[in-house]
Amino acid sequence: MTEQTESVTNTEAAKNPNLNIADLINVLQVFRSCAARGAFRADEMSAVGGLYDRIQEFLVATGAIKPGEETPESEGGPNQG
Length: 81
Prior knowledge:
Layout: H1 2-15, H2 21-36, H3 45-62
Helix pairs in contact: 2-3
């Protein structure tokens, strides 16, 4: 019975990949790059901007980034040159 329980737990873990803070920071970087390149249509702007704002607020609340900070220094960031 224990083997069956462990097998179910391992299978569930494989089906539920992890998402971490670094992934969310990368999502913000992708949003900024796409916006800079004009990848979003006008009718998509509010949905994309709203999601961007929510992710940024979450990262500020967790302490991963400071208010107004686009990318933590340790993560690097898009080339701004």
